[in-house]
Fold:
Amino acid sequence: MEVQMKDVTMQFNNITAVDRMNVTIEDGELVSMLGPSGCGKSTTLFMLAGLYKPTAGEIFFGDRLVNKIEPEHREIGMVFQNYALYPHLSVLKNIMFPLKMRKVSKGEAEELAREMAKLVQIDHLLDRKPGQLSGGQQQRVAIARALVKKPKILLLDEPLSNLDARLRLEMREEIRRIQQEVKITTIFVTHDQEEAMSISDKILLMKDGKFQQFCPPQEMYDHPENEFVASFLGSPPINLFPASLMDNLKDVSISGTNDVITLSSPLKEGMDPARQVTLGIRPEDFYIETDEKKQGILGKTIMVERIGRDNLLNVEVQNKTVRAIVSPDLRIERGDVVKLGILPERAHLFAVHTGENLLDSKLR
Amino acid sequence: MNDTPTIGKTLKALLYLAPALLIIGTFNIYPIIKSFLMSFYTDYDYFKDIVNERGLSNYSYIFQDPEFWLSMKNTMIFVIGVVPISIILSLGIAVLLNQKIKFRGFFRTVYFIPFVTSVVAVSIVWRWIFHTQYGLLNHFLGFFGVSPIKWLSDPQMAMPALIILAVWKGLGYNIIIFLAGLQNINQQYYLAAKIDGASSWQRFKNITVPLLSSTTFFISIISIINSFKVFDEVFALFGGQPGPANSAQTVVYYIFNKFYGEWDFGVASAAAYALFIVIFILTLVQLYVGKRKVNY
Ligand SMILES: Nc1ncnc2c1ncn2[C@@H]1O[C@H](COP(=O)(O)OP(=O)(O)OP(=O)(O)O)[C@@H](O)[C@H]1O
Ligand SMILES: [Mg+2]
Structure:
């Protein structure tokens, strides 16, 4: 089912946990809600679930306004951060619980629960109590319990945060598989950007309760709306240089150096171009420029690290460390002065005050 | 702190424990043993403290004494009347008090007051509440067209009156324990149950009751034991009498009467041990049943 939030706001006393959120999630999409701790992810999820009532704005499921509808009647499934499996009930009874609440006959409920258990591959654990399961198994039970009543929307609040690295990897594939199998609109809260990048159709990025950007992961990575989005995604993180925009609106001079970079993308139209800007370059968008006459950023190599088939260079520019991932074909030693060239159309330019991306992404 | 016990340490510990042990020994352990032995004294000169004969005749006496059986029956009725009502009522109130309501602290205090007040003082008030002509309860029931009930003088009504008093008296303690139990239930289960479509009654039945079972179990054991030992409520409510026509005579009252009224120490001790055995067996049964029901 399509989920639409219109100016949704949640205020706790004097904290605005979510500030005028406007997002439309399409039917069958898997959306990751991403952002630093305390940015309002759980609060947003709880409002969608009906556990919190928004203080302003409207939430639509399809074309039904659900603001006043209790969670019991919203046709949603939810997996909590710590799973919240009923400790006194067996796995089977846990999965049957939502059906029992709907007065589905016992035989039918058991059949549906067994089917669901098979889907999440825990059908051999049905008689155990939640206390006797591992974290990954508990999570599957929680997913089965959330899915068994065939909800229209599945909400997951950091379901993987309690698992070890390998299990996390496995379980996120699992969630993706199940989601695609049942084709259910899914909203998945995480603060792990890599997790969000790898499984979602779209990412919804938030900061301090405010919407930042909502689009497919690759697009968000390549065309961040602002400096925060750019620096939140990517590991190692994007390199940021204080710089100023020259009068021709095409050349950027990096503060404190003689280096000038000519932008290969145009500025956004109708924009009053602030002259104080921040130039952002992702580590993998650098290369080693050997041509004397071409542009680049000069710096002294302070560390060379081989990572897989690439070299990670730490280069000192203006007393700051710039990270560059470059091809190892060119031998570079510690102490060498290198010129870092920028791949065409890979530079990002942000206004210093607003953090807004100044380059036109549509033409790129 | 997993040191092995040494003689020195044990002696030191004993030294610390000695004052308490001395008091418990004198006033608890010694009387328990003494009364056990006393229950076998069949011919006893208490002026000179000479035992002429020992035997089982005290026990055979009480088992043939209709008054003992009446006391036992009354006690049973009392327990069966008090325990379930008290548990259900205090659980209900605890659930209400656990909600986000105004003046919550005030209400909690109000419900706890009966527990900290003296039974004798409270019973005086209740004697007035139960008064046939001027009592509050009859006045209140009058609104519903119920004609005045002789709570304290009708043998049929004495036991219900006693049960009402005991339920009211026990409420505060049970509520506090239930509140503690309720607060131990993780709120997440209620959120999850809401999402799973459970109505508030279904949440109470499927989450609160089972997750509170160990608390309920504890309270039921404590209240059964306490109810079996009921005495001061009887004594104070009926002005030193075991109710009209012995209708509220309980086992402990019977023991008291044999001891102080008839100076028949042997019979009193035997009755006390009979009561002890009954409580002991019931508690064992409860523990057995509880172990199978209360675990998750
Ligand atoms: N019940 C509440 N009462 C008051 N403030 C709250 C409440 N719940 C959340 N907040 C505040 O709202 C803001 C957003 O909280 P929220 O739990 O949504 O963050 P989050 O993005 O889920 O963080 P995390 O990644 O740490 O789980 C925080 O500043 C938090 O302190
Ligand atoms: Mg959260």
Summary: Residues A 41-42 surround magnesium ion (ligand 2) (CB under 6 Å). Chain B touches chain A through 19 residues (CB under 8 Å). The two ends of chain B are 31 Å apart (CA to CA).
